[in-house]
Amino acid sequence: MNETLTQAVPLEPEPPRKSKSLPIKPKRRQFRVGRNDVDIIAKLALPDLEVGCYQRVVIKADAKNNAEIYVGRVGVTQETGFKLTAGDEIELTVDNLNSIYVKASRKTQAYCWLAN
Considering the entire predicted model, what is its pTM? Predict the structure, then answer.
Protein backbone atom coordinates (compact mmCIF):
# COMPACT_ATOMS: atom_id res chain seq x y z
CA MET A 1 0.00 0.00 0.00
CA ASN A 2 1.51 3.22 -1.13
CA GLU A 3 0.30 6.04 0.96
CA THR A 4 1.50 9.53 0.52
CA LEU A 5 1.66 11.34 3.76
CA THR A 6 1.39 15.04 3.71
CA GLN A 7 2.35 17.15 6.57
CA ALA A 8 0.29 20.20 7.41
CA VAL A 9 2.38 23.28 7.02
CA PRO A 10 1.30 26.21 9.16
CA LEU A 11 0.37 29.16 7.00
CA GLU A 12 1.58 32.58 7.86
CA PRO A 13 -1.27 34.84 8.81
CA GLU A 14 -2.21 37.31 6.13
CA PRO A 15 -1.26 40.85 6.91
CA PRO A 16 -4.28 42.96 7.76
CA ARG A 17 -5.81 44.50 4.71
CA LYS A 18 -6.02 48.23 4.55
CA SER A 19 -9.58 49.33 4.41
CA LYS A 20 -10.42 51.60 1.54
CA SER A 21 -13.77 52.58 2.90
CA LEU A 22 -14.86 56.10 2.27
CA PRO A 23 -16.00 58.30 5.10
CA ILE A 24 -19.74 58.30 5.43
CA LYS A 25 -21.16 61.73 5.03
CA PRO A 26 -24.37 62.31 6.89
CA LYS A 27 -27.28 63.13 4.65
CA ARG A 28 -27.93 66.83 4.83
CA ARG A 29 -31.45 67.78 5.58
CA GLN A 30 -32.74 70.85 3.97
CA PHE A 31 -35.23 73.05 5.68
CA ARG A 32 -38.22 73.97 3.61
CA VAL A 33 -40.29 76.99 4.41
CA GLY A 34 -43.47 78.54 3.13
CA ARG A 35 -46.03 81.22 3.83
CA ASN A 36 -49.71 81.15 2.91
CA ASP A 37 -52.89 83.11 3.37
CA VAL A 38 -56.10 81.32 4.30
CA ASP A 39 -59.67 82.53 4.67
CA ILE A 40 -62.94 81.38 6.17
CA ILE A 41 -64.16 79.56 3.06
CA ALA A 42 -61.11 77.64 1.89
CA LYS A 43 -59.63 74.83 3.90
CA LEU A 44 -56.16 75.07 2.47
CA ALA A 45 -53.81 72.11 2.45
CA LEU A 46 -50.11 72.67 2.76
CA PRO A 47 -48.13 71.88 -0.43
CA ASP A 48 -47.80 68.32 -1.72
CA LEU A 49 -44.28 67.99 -0.39
CA GLU A 50 -42.94 64.69 0.86
CA VAL A 51 -40.68 65.43 3.80
CA GLY A 52 -39.52 61.90 4.51
CA CYS A 53 -40.45 59.31 7.03
CA TYR A 54 -42.37 61.27 9.61
CA GLN A 55 -40.46 64.49 9.90
CA ARG A 56 -41.26 67.54 11.97
CA VAL A 57 -43.29 70.44 10.65
CA VAL A 58 -43.85 73.69 12.54
CA ILE A 59 -46.87 75.82 11.62
CA LYS A 60 -47.02 79.33 13.04
CA ALA A 61 -49.84 81.84 12.89
CA ASP A 62 -48.67 85.23 11.67
CA ALA A 63 -48.15 87.73 14.48
CA LYS A 64 -50.30 90.28 12.59
CA ASN A 65 -53.37 88.03 12.43
CA ASN A 66 -56.49 89.48 14.01
CA ALA A 67 -58.36 86.17 14.18
CA GLU A 68 -57.64 82.53 14.87
CA ILE A 69 -56.58 79.88 12.38
CA TYR A 70 -57.32 76.19 12.80
CA VAL A 71 -54.98 73.34 11.89
CA GLY A 72 -56.16 69.79 11.29
CA ARG A 73 -57.08 67.12 8.76
CA VAL A 74 -59.08 67.48 5.58
CA GLY A 75 -62.37 69.20 6.39
CA VAL A 76 -60.94 71.04 9.39
CA THR A 77 -63.42 73.29 11.19
CA GLN A 78 -63.35 75.53 14.22
CA GLU A 79 -64.69 72.60 16.22
CA THR A 80 -62.24 69.97 14.96
CA GLY A 81 -59.07 71.98 14.41
CA PHE A 82 -56.26 73.02 16.71
CA LYS A 83 -56.65 76.75 17.34
CA LEU A 84 -53.71 79.08 16.79
CA THR A 85 -53.97 82.75 17.72
CA ALA A 86 -51.55 85.40 16.42
CA GLY A 87 -47.97 84.26 17.03
CA ASP A 88 -48.92 80.74 18.24
CA GLU A 89 -47.28 77.69 16.71
CA ILE A 90 -47.69 73.94 16.66
CA GLU A 91 -45.22 71.18 15.82
CA LEU A 92 -46.50 68.11 13.99
CA THR A 93 -44.90 64.95 12.63
CA VAL A 94 -45.97 63.94 9.12
CA ASP A 95 -44.62 62.30 5.98
CA ASN A 96 -46.25 64.72 3.55
CA LEU A 97 -47.30 68.30 4.17
CA ASN A 98 -50.50 67.87 2.17
CA SER A 99 -52.01 65.93 5.07
CA ILE A 100 -52.25 69.20 7.04
CA TYR A 101 -55.13 71.63 6.42
CA VAL A 102 -55.55 75.17 7.69
CA LYS A 103 -58.72 77.28 7.97
CA ALA A 104 -59.23 80.82 9.24
CA SER A 105 -62.05 81.90 11.53
CA ARG A 106 -62.40 85.31 9.89
CA LYS A 107 -61.31 87.05 6.68
CA THR A 108 -57.83 86.44 5.35
CA GLN A 109 -55.25 85.33 7.89
CA ALA A 110 -51.65 84.23 7.34
CA TYR A 111 -49.44 81.44 8.56
CA CYS A 112 -45.98 80.13 7.81
CA TRP A 113 -44.51 76.64 8.01
CA LEU A 114 -41.08 75.08 8.39
CA ALA A 115 -40.26 71.46 7.60
CA ASN A 116 -37.07 69.45 7.67
Answer: 0.67
